[in-house]
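New to this. Please check this record:
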Amino acid sequence: LNDEKSEDLFSISTFTPTTQEQDNYIEWENKKLELQWKNLEILREEI
């Protein structure tokens, strides 16, 4: 029983991102969006 429980906990923790990882992911997504906007603005200025 104990072995099963610890295995469950382990598998759950490996599949659930930590809040730190989630923060990093969100930050990364925001940065990508920002870059896309900047590129659009640069394109507009060139036209």
Remarks:
- Residues 19-46 form the longest helix (28 residues).
- Residues 18-47 form one domain.
- The chain has two helices and no strands.
- The chain has a mean pLDDT of 79.
